[in-house]
Amino acid sequence: MKIKAETWVMGLFVVLAVAYLGWLNISKPRILVLHSYDPEYAWSRDVNVGLNRVLRNSYRYQLRWHYMDTKRHPTAAYKQAAGIAARNVIAEMRPDVVIALDDDAQSYAARYLVNQPGISIVFAGVNNEASDYGYDKATNATGILERLPLAAIQEALGQAQGLKALQRPLRLAYLGDASHSVEGDLQQIRGFAWGPVVLQSTTQVRTWPEWQAQVRSLAPSADVLLLTGYRSLRRSAQDPSLVSPREVVTWTDANAGVPVISGNGFFTEDGGMLAVGTSPYEQGEEAARRALDIAVRGTPAAQIPITEAQHFIVTMNASLMQTHGFTLPRIYEAAARTGDKHLP
């Protein structure tokens, strides 16, 4: 009889323990990481590094990742469908916090959550303005805006030995694809006080032939070409397939007739010479900290100010720098090496 009682008590303990653990799991805060792009995209990959530096104690919350994959599928129809799919994931998961990354995640999913009770939005990687998505008036949104490090780019141009020899102000041209993120980049570039650098032109194009024509026309009117977005270029007006980033970058470097730099760190991975870009690690870390403040610590999103990017990374290809006679102070090489972003 005593054995049966002990067995019954032990069984009850197991049942209660399982029930308690189940309750703990169900009651844990839920966080959804919603990416605009795909996990193989270098920007998303490095943002995830930043996220994972902070989101290390997953036993304290439920964590789910969803990728909309709009960089590889930039058509309006695909983005609309990806947005519906993302909103369905949100409705099914019912997260406490959605970490929405980059502009498409805001445009097609997160902005529909503005002022919705029981859910908070933490945005990052946003090239446009918070007001474009209604976040400036939202009681449930906070985040960090992605901003090109234009002052750092301007400083690097002023430090380049080959460009210092010019007997006139340096002329800068900007070229980008027709993506939504580039529209945000253009607002920043056109609004920046570039002096003594002269911003000669800013151009967006949709197709590869248009891009090639713009690049070939640059040399007489510009000393440096600045790029940010180039992943949405269609092969032609008739062929909607996308030109690979490496083809775009290597062809542009070979045919521009002037040094080509970028405001995105992954540029050198695609075959480019030099980039001074927004830190994807900062974007991920800041978004994750805000999500935990809201979901775990109970801080209302409205009490966490919206901020702008403060950090940047340097990436460089040493052989291309030498080929183009583009020499910078050694601190730039040290910065690239420290971040493991220096190619020989």
List keywords for this structure.
344 residues; alpha/beta; Rossmann fold; 2 domains; 7-stranded mixed sheet; 6-stranded parallel sheet; 12 helices
Low-confidence stretches: 14-24
According to CATH, the homologous superfamily of the largest domain is Response regulator
The termini sit apart by 78 Å
| Overall CATH class of the largest domain | Alpha Beta
The largest sheet is: 7 strands, mixed
How many domains, in number, for the residues? 2
CA-atom Rg in angstroms? 24 Å
Second rung of CATH, namely the architecture of the largest domain: 3-Layer(aba) Sandwich
Which percent range describes the beta-strand content? 15-25%
Count the E strands: 13
User: What gross morphology would you assign?
Assistant: elongated
Sheet/helix structural class? alpha/beta
**Cross-sheet strand order for the largest sheet:** 7-6-8-9-10-12-13
User: How many helices in DSSP terms?
Assistant: 12
Order of helices and strands: HEHEHEHEEHHEHEHEHEEHEEHHE
List the helices and strands and how they pair.
Blueprint: H1 2-27, E1 30-35, H2 42-54, E2 62-67, H3 76-93, E3 97-101, H4 103-108, E4 120-126, E5 141-145, H5 150-159, H6 161-164, E6 171-177, H7 180-191, E7 198-205, H8 208-216, E8 224-227, H9 245-255, E9 260-262, E10 274-278, H10 280-295, E11 307-308, E12 312-317, H11 318-323, H12 330-338, E13 342-343
Parallel strand pairs: 1-2, 1-3, 3-4, 4-5, 5-11, 6-7, 6-8, 8-9, 9-10, 12-13
Antiparallel strand pairs: 10-12
